[in-house]
Amino acid sequence: MAAETTDLDDLRDRARRWLDDDPDPASRDELRAVLDRLPGSGPELADRFAGSLTFGTAGLRGPLRAGPNGMNLAVVTRAAAGLVAWLAAEGGEGPLVIGYDARHGSRAFAERTAQVATGAGRPALLLPRPLPTPVLAYAVRHLGAVAGVMVTASHNPPQDNGYKVYLGAQLGGALGAGAQIVPPADAGIEAAIRSVGPLAQVPLGPAGQVLGDDLVAGYVERAASVIDPDGPRDLKVAYTPLHGVGAAVLTAAFARAGFPVPGVVPDQAEPDPAFPTVSFPNPEEPGAVDRLVALADATGADVAIANDPDADRCAVAVRAAGSWRMLRGDEVGALLADHLMRRGVSGLYATTIVSSSLLRAMCAARGLPYDETLTGFKWIVRAGGGAQPLVFGYEEALGYCVAPEHVRDKDGITAALTVAELAAGLKEQGRTLTDRLDELAAEFGVHHTDQLSVRVDDLRVIADAMARIRAARPGALLGQPVTEAQDLLPASDVVILRTAAARVVIRPSGTEPKLKAYLEVVEPVADGDVPSARTRAQTAIAALRTEIATALGL
């Protein structure tokens, strides 16, 4: 009992010190309310002060709440001060460009970042309104900025927000110009953040220069130029931004490219930080695109497209056997890569270790360079080390980069345009995206992928599962011996298992409290019978899913 009282007193003292340094009256009131409810609020207070949000290669991401273990104005002020100090220490010159989405707190966090930059004597350029993440990534390159900050939590739950950092060419190099940071920059920025003193001593300047709509128009123009100006345009698209910031930019890009403007799900068209019509604002989640499919049905759309809330991801649904089905990220990735190859786009094609092996097979058969990276676009855009120019990269989590010279990150707007270009060309021939997938399967075999994804409240569940698979790796999967087992520790918390016809990649999510196992089986197609091969692959993947769940103790 004495120990508990001591712990509570320590928490109370830490909270009071935080209150003395917190520049936001609203979050101070929030934290005082927690203190007023002690001792009953002890567990909540302990969680808020369990540690500080760590600035990693994805920047910051966490729940909106007072305290060091949350996203709030104090945490953002400290992060901005550390970033600006690190840029100065590295000799980085030029403006900091800042974008933000429509989540709770995003604009205030963006404006505070601009104030910290100008207070340190660095020009700050603020995007004109809530805009997609790809527009910020484009702006870093287009404006020659030293770095960029995007305030967004992407497809996380409504109560979250985040803070992503991009570097310009001066500090990011040719491959990292306009790309997300990678080590050692993340560690350097984190160290600089820890060195920031009392927030009252951080000088604040004006809120920077608000950029005009010409920047957005420039992005739209470049996005529209990604596709063939003379290709077919007869295509009816249903679209949803999932209450995010993608609608205005995507519809403008479609119009500029000469496509009919997509029909937009009415009650998801405008940005809304509450995301009222979806339980989880991620197009991969069950039920998230139900309204989109309904609109596609009602309007007779040829294809249905969804962006996630910050529009850096792109989901595609197609009509098959009388109903709509969402294509897997690996399927869209293969379709886009194949389309670019057929257009004669030569150069490096890249994906990640958790994506399908189909792209590797396609590149090998067609004599094109290929590379495979760790998970995340920060790695994809640096694939191959610059030996070959990157022309396409994708990851299975609905992220695609079809024009690295335009945006050196995943871009759900240009991906949607390229899907539309492909679908319109196939439609002119009386064919569909699923027909093209069947062609690829007939040529390379059915590469069927799936996920075992487990969301947890206690991160120890993930640690225990990873320890279990390392201690007792399966000797066989689907009745075939495991021919290769890789453990990527300490560089990355990843375990890879392979047989002659299957592959499993197991890793904790980098952005959510999830354990993920990425599953793939490859089923040859005999005598052109793709449907039978798909059926066999589906049966095999279901069995593989069960085997891996058992091996992980889940």
Structure description:
Helices cover 39% and strands 19% of the residues. With 554 residues, it is of the alpha/beta class. The protein folds into 4 domains: 50 residues, no CATH class; 157 residues, Alpha-D-Glucose-1,6-Bisphosphate, Chain A, domain 3 (3-Layer(aba) Sandwich); 226 residues, Alpha-D-Glucose-1,6-Bisphosphate, Chain A, domain 3 (3-Layer(aba) Sandwich); 108 residues, Alpha-D-phosphohexomutase, C-terminal domain (TATA-Binding Protein), CATH 3.30.310. The strands form 5 sheets. Strands 1, 2, 3, 4, 5, 6 and 7 form a 7-stranded mixed beta sheet that branches. It has a 5-stranded mixed beta sheet with strand order 9-8-10-11-12. A 5-stranded antiparallel beta sheet has the order 17-23-22-21-20. A hairpin with a 2-residue loop joins β11 and β12. The model has no long low-confidence stretch (mean pLDDT 96).
Which key terms come to mind for this protein?
554 residues; alpha/beta; Alpha-D-Glucose-1,6-Bisphosphate, Chain A, domain 3; seven-stranded mixed beta sheet; five-stranded mixed beta sheet; 39% helix; globular; metal-binding; Phosphomannomutase; Alpha-D-phosphohexomutase_SF; A-D-PHexomutase_a/b/a-III; magnesium
